[in-house]
Structures are given as structure tokens and as C-alpha cells.
């Protein structure tokens, strides 16, 4: 934890330095595609004549380069074959650099798999002076009891989600306010160490410096949920190729995140096996003719499978659209049932507003919102990411929710544990620094 705390602090400093230089890249390493966007940071007044900025009133960056390439060597949102992934990342980054006509050294990345796990922590302290200082916020964050989440896991996000000063709760930022007792609720998100290290190592092999890390479910929620949904309580379901991310927001903070190790690629795989066609053909059929709700017409609508096996009879096969829907629907239902189970476990039912927003590439299957409304609840809508300055038209769809969210995360990151000077003696019990201090004091 100590090492991670220090490295996250170093990443934050690197991000600030990159923003002062004016250029930073974001990298979305997914199972089906790798997207790289190059951002240029300037003052908001530079683009005043150019319509809305990243978010109304928060314009400070513009996308000057964008590239996507087919992902290789990634399964379930985790790196599976290092060299192939490295090659794919290099391809995407070089293409984006070429379009932007600048060289990029720093990237902010996100990862979707790695079995995320959420914890809610609480802590409180007495305030020495009358006013709450930066140091008091650091002390109350350090006072939160960190659970023993296991040696094989690392903290990816540690965000204070609520502060209470004396009897007043729901404070966003208590600094500068008067009071005697400060309490804090914090959301801690941990992921598997190996998946994280593989990504860090892969980015290092591409000669890039990492200036930040985020959970893909979190950044997809930032870009796809509108302000009211983030305030009143909503869940964002980011349906990717190999994993389906899930994040719950309330009061503009993420309070829960999880991932289901199934996505659009599994639907494609089912079509490939069911119709006995290659994966590329299955993906084409899914994109052009797929769906999950059958109508009376579908028995008569025939789809030419095509192929180049050399067997004339086999290459001229046709299937009805009803048959295709029969293959796709069970898998999509399975993914949504799994998501429903995770939402129930998180206590989503107790939120004031139970809006569910579907985003990600796999959410574009026709009829999915209707099926999701039956399985997850009535308030379901399809979400598209916010409009960002300079983003190419091709990158404005639901498949780019994480990429756009990463841009917003890069420009306006929320305060996290590592933004404050935590006193050394308040590190979690397992930390090395604490052990060293104990030895120094007692021997």
C-alpha cells in the first residue's frame, strides 16, 4: 500500500507536469479495441467561440489526435499476450501522434477486468484548531480503517465520498469550515495486482510514462451519466468486448464498482459456434443483423452467411434472423442476470433514483434496452458519452464511453487519498514504513 500510495502521488505530479507542458495522451486498453486520444490543454478562453467545451463551463482541453486499432492479446479486459498487446498499443499511439503532429510521453490508462472489489470505509477525528485544514482532511482519511483485502490486490481508487462536520453531513469539501469533529466516508476500489502490473509493464515497454490509472467502469460512468443521474443515484453498465463493467454513482461520487467477465465477444463466439462460421463472419452478422427481441417478420428474413471454404453448398447457406436471435438472446440474458445479481448485492434498490444507463460497444445490439428493462428494472436508457471538443465523429458512439471518460478524468480528477499528505504513522498496518518507524523507536 505504501509503495502504491507513493507511486500514485508520483503519477499525479507527472499528470500536472504533462498538463503544464500542454499535451497528454489517454489510452483505453480494451478486449476488442485499443483507443488512443491525444489531448492538448489550454486556457478555456482559447475555445470560447467554438461552442461547448468538455462539460459546460469546464472547457480546458481539446482532442488533437485520435486512433483506434484492433486489440490483440487482451482477454476479459486483462493482458494475455504481452508482445501482441505492446504492438497494438504502439500502433494506436503512433497513429494518434501522427494525426496530432506531436510526440507524447505521458499516458493515462484505464483497465476493465482485474476482478474489482469495493469497500466502504469510515473514520473520524477531533480537530485541534477551529478551522478544518488540509492536514485535518489528510488525518481523517488516514483514520479510515482499511480492511485486509489480501496480499494479491492493490488499491486503484480511494475517494472520499462524504464529509461530516459536527452534526452537518453531506459536505463535499470541509476545508476552511469551522467545527470540532470531522468524519469521512471513503470508497476503496481494489483490483488484482498481477493484472495491474502487466498493464504497467506493457506501457513501460512501449516507452511511455504512466501519468494516471483509472477503472474503466468509473470513467464510463463519468462520461455517460448526466449530472442529475450522478447526483440522485444511477448505475452505469459498460458492456465491452470481454468484460462488462458496473459502477454506481450518488452525490457525484462512485460508491460501488464491479465487473462481469462476459461481454460482446462472448455473443460473437456463440454465433460462430452456433452457425459454424469464423469469428470475423460472426462479428459481421452480429453487427448487421443481430438483435435480442424477435418479431413475426424474423422467420422470413433470411441472412446469407457467405464464406470462402470452397464448398459451394456450404458457402451459400442461409439462416433466418429468428435463428440468429435465438443464439444471441440467451447469452445477453445471462450477462444482464449477472449484472442484476451484482446490483442487488450492492443494495442498488435502496437508492432514491434507480436509473440504469447502458453504454459500451455491446450495448448497441438492437432491442437490448427493452430486454434490459425487463431484467434490470424499468428505468433503463442507452447512454452516449458527453461531447468533447475535437473528438472525431467516429469516436462519439457508446463504444468510446471509457475513452471520453478518461479525457474528463485527466482534465478534472476527483480528490483521492494520494492527493493529501498522509502522516507516515497512519499508513495501514501492513506498510513497511510503519514497521521501520516502529523498529527505530523501539530499538
From TrEMBL:
- What is the name attached to this protein's record? Cell division protein FtsA
Membrane-topology annotation of the record: Peripheral membrane protein
What is any one GO biological process for this UniProt entry?
A: FtsZ-dependent cytokinesis
Q: Where is each SHS2 domain found?
A: 24-224
Cellular component (GO) terms are: cell division site; cytoplasmic side of plasma membrane
Q: How does it assemble?
A: Self-interacts. Interacts with FtsZ.
**Keywords assigned by UniProt, alphabetized:** Cell cycle, Cell division, Cell membrane, Membrane
Which gene is transcribed and translated to give this protein?
Answer: ftsA
Q: Which SMART domains match?
A: FtsA
Q: Which Pfam families match?
A: FtsA, SHS2_FTSA
Family of this protein: Belongs to the FtsA/MreB family.
Where is this chain's protein located in or outside the cell?
A: Cell membrane
- Which InterPro entries does the entry link to? ATPase_NBD, Cell_div_FtsA, FtsA/MreB, SHS2_FtsA
Give the protein's function: Cell division protein that is involved in the assembly of the Z ring. May serve as a membrane anchor for the Z ring.
Chief location of this protein within or outside the cell:
membrane
Amino acid at each position: 500500500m505504501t509503495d502504491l500510495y507513493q507511486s500514485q502521488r508520483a503519477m499525479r505530479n507527472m499528470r500536472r507536469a504533462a498538463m503544464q507542458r500542454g499535451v497528454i495522451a489517454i489510452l483505453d486498453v480494451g478486449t476488442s479495441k485499443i483507443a488512443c486520444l491525444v489531448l492538448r490543454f489550454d486556457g478555456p478562453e482559447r475555445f470560447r467561440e467554438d461552442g461547448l467545451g468538455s462539460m459546460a463551463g469546464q472547457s480546458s482541453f481539446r482532442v488533437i489526435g485520435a486512433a483506434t486499432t484492433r486489440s490483440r492479446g487482451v482477454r476479459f479486459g486483462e493482458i494475455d499476450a504481452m508482445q501482441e498487446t505492446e504492438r497494438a498499443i504502439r500502433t494506436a499511439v503512433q497513429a494518434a501522434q501522427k494525426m496530432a503532429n506531436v510526440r507524447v510521453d505521458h499516458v493515462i490508462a484505464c483497465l476493465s477486468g482485474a476482478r474489482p472489489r469495493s469497500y466502504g470505509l469510515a473514520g473520524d477525528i477531533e480537530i485541534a484548531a477551529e478551522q478544518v485544514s488540509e492536514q485535518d482532511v489528510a488525518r481523517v482519511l488516514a483514520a479510515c480503517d482499511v480492511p485486509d483485502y489480501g496480499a494479491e490486490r492493490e488499491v486503484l481508487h480511494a475517494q472520499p465520498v462524504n464529509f461530516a462536520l459536527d452534526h452537518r453531513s453531506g459536505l463535499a469539501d470541509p476545508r476552511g469550515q469551522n467545527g470540532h469533529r470531522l468524519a469521512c466516508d471513503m470508497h476503496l476500489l481494489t483490483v488484482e495486482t498481477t493484472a495491474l502490473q502487466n498493464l504497467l509493464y506493457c506501457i513501460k515497454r512501449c516507452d511511455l510514462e504512466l501519468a494516471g490509472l483509472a477503472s474503466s467502469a468509473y470513467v464510463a460512468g463519468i462520461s455517460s451519466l448526466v449530472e442529475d443521474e450522478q447526483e440522485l443515484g444511477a448505475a452505469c453498465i459498460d458492456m465491452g468486448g470481454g468484460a462488462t463493467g458496473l459502477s454506481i454513482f450518488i452525490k457525484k461520487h462512485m460508491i460501488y464498482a464491479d465487473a462481469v467477465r462476459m461481454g460482446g465477444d462472448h455473443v460473437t463466439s456463440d454465433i460462430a459456434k452456433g452457425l459454424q462460421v469464423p469469428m470475423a463472419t460472426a462479428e459481421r452478422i452480429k453487427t448487421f443483423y443481430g438483435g435480442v427481441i424477435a418479431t413475426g417478420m424474423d422467420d422470413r428474413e433470411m441472412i446469407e452467411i457467405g464464406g470462402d471454404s470452397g464448398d459451394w453448398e456450404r458457402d451459400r447457406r442461409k439462416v433466418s434472423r429468428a435463428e440468429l436471435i435465438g443464439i444471441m438472446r440467451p447469452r445477453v440474458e445471462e450477462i444482464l442476470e449477472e449484472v442484476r445479481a451484482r446490483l442487488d448485492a450492492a443494495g442498488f434498490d435502496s437508492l432514491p433514483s434507480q436509473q440504469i444507463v447502458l453504454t459500451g460497444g455491446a450495448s448497441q445490439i438492437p432491442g437490448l434496452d427493452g430486454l434490459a428493462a425487463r431484467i434490470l428494472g424499468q428505468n433503463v436508457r442507452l447512454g452516449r458519452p458527453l461531447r468533447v471538443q475535437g473528438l472525431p465523429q467516429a469516436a462519439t458512439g457508446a463504444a468510446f464511453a471509457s475513452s471520453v471518460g478518461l479525457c474528463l478524468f485527466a482534465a478534472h480528477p476527483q480528490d483521492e487519498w494520494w492527493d493529501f499528505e498522509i502522516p507516515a504513522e497512519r499508513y495501514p498496518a501492513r506498510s513497511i514504513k510503519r514497521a521501520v518507524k516502529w523498529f527505530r523507536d523501539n530499538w
